């Protein structure tokens, strides 16, 4: 059996490390809440909710440079996620009109229509993989429309996302190839979009907003445009798919909860928050310490990397009653799944609505389902086999 010191030293939050991650988090919270891992060039990690909230909000001490992602998912800084204040706000402002309550209200019907069609198709077709048939398809179709990515290109996206996000720890060369392919794809798309103006009647696509944007009177450079598109592509597709898949994975095993949500769909938004808390699509993000500091007595030096384990903070017993339990009607559920500082997820309300509407429509259309293959994991966006009576 591994000692606590060994668990600390080899702390990881990708791939198979996720098989046992909640137990690892518990041990770390209890024994070394400010731990030191040797993975990915070495980093400190924080597992207590309070510490993570503090670092998220302390831009004087922590930077997101060179990148928030550990290990990196690009060999260039991504916009806006790898940008510090004050430039960060210039970049965030560009897309804010897309996420106002009015803009989001307009998105409800298209998201619901797509979810309904996919759920019907899934229930009728006799296929059993709810990831490809539903959890991934819903955000891919909706987000790609919002972003302005042509429909004929959607089939390519899943493989690119998989290679960049999930292969990067196993096969970095493959991840790099996918990164280059995505950048070449956006390079082409940006050219096609240039010169278009945002239709008055429409809200415009993400591509339109990025191309029209000006910062201090200047349009975004080609590299800025590419970098923003790349981040939106990764952020908009994978996270929401993970959240929908994780919700179905859980409900397939907790039939009481599944029945309760069918009988009382008003509980679905609360259930969605609880899944985001307990099975968070983004388990961790990194920062770099800008000046020497101390957390819980541990000295952290300028230049050290610090990883915020959102997944661990989200199960901190100091914050949540029975933290390991997935309670679909949990109240006061303030979690870290979208971050908590000035980098808080820009698409959080859209991601939430896609998750809630997706679950509502799935439960309306697909009869009671159970897990078809118990070896399928809670994490990632791999296959999810569901059994149900037709
Ligand atoms: C359930 C779905 C989602 C989850 C769990 C999620 C989670 C996150 C997290 C944890 C961060 C980093 C926050 C931090 O370190 O403080 C983030 C940032 C971001 N997310 Fe999301 N996200 C989701 C959906 C989306 C969607 C649908 C979009 C786009 C439409 C999006 C766009 C972004 C952007 C642009 C950032 C960077 C914000 C910044 O650096 O200022 N996300 N997200």
Automatic annotation (TrEMBL):
InterPro entries registered for this protein in UniProt: Cyt_P450 (IPR001128), Cyt_P450_B (IPR002397), Cyt_P450_CS (IPR017972), Cyt_P450_sf (IPR036396)
- What Pfam families does the record point to? p450
Q: Which domain of life is it from?
A: Bacteria
The alphabetized UniProt keywords are: Heme, Iron, Metal-binding, Monooxygenase, Oxidoreductase
Family listed: Belongs to the cytochrome P450 family.
Protein name (record): Cytochrome P450
Q: Which organism is it from?
A: Paragemmobacter amnigenus
């Amino acid at each position: 059996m591994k000692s606590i010191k060994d668990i600390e030293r080899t702390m990881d939050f990708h791939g198979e490390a996720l098989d046992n991650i909640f137990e690892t988090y518990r041990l770390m919270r209890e024994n070394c809440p400010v731990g030191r891992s040797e993975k990915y060039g070495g980093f400190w990690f924080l597992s207590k909710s309070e510490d993570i909230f503090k670092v998220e909000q302390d831009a004087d001490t922590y930077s997101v440079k060179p990148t928030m992602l550990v290990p990196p998912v690009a060999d260039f800084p991504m916009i806006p996620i790898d940008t510090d204040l004050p430039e960060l706000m210039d970049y965030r402002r560009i897309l804010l009109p897309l996420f106002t309550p009015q803009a989001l209200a307009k998105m409800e019907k298209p998201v619901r229509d797509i979810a309904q069609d996919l759920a019907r198709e899934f229930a009728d077709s006799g296929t059993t993989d709810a990831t490809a048939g539903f959890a991934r398809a819903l955000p891919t179709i909706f987000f790609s429309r919002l972003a302005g990515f042509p429909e004929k290109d959607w089939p390519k996206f899943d493989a690119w996302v998989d290679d960049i996000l999930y292969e990067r720890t196993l096969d970095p060369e493959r991840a790099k190839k996918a990164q280059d392919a995505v950048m070449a794809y956006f390079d082409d798309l940006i050219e096609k979009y240039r010169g278009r103006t945002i239709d008055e009647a429409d809200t415009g696509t993400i591509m339109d907003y990025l191309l029209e944007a000006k910062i201090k009177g200047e349009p975004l450079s080609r590299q800025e445009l590419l970098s923003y598109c790349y981040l939106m592509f990764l952020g908009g597709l994978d996270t929401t798919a993970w959240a929908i898949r994780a919700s179905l994975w859980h409900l397939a095993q907790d039939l009481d909860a599944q029945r309760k949500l069918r009988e009382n769909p008003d509980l679905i938004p609360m259930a969605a928050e609880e899944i985001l808390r307990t099975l968070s699509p983004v388990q961790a993000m990194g920062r770099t310490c800008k000046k020497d500091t101390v957390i819980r007595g541990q000295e952290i030096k300028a230049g050290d990397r610090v990883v915020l384990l959102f997944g661990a903070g989200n199960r901190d017993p100091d914050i949540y009653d029975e933290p390991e339990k997935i309670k679909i009607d949990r109240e006061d559920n303030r979690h870290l799944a979208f971050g908590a500082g000035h980098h808080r997820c820009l698409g959080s309300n859209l991601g939430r609505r896609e998750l809630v509407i997706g679950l509502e429509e799935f439960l309306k259309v697909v009869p009671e389902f159970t897990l078809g293959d118990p070896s399928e994991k809670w994490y990632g966006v791999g296959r999810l086999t569901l059994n149900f009576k037709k």
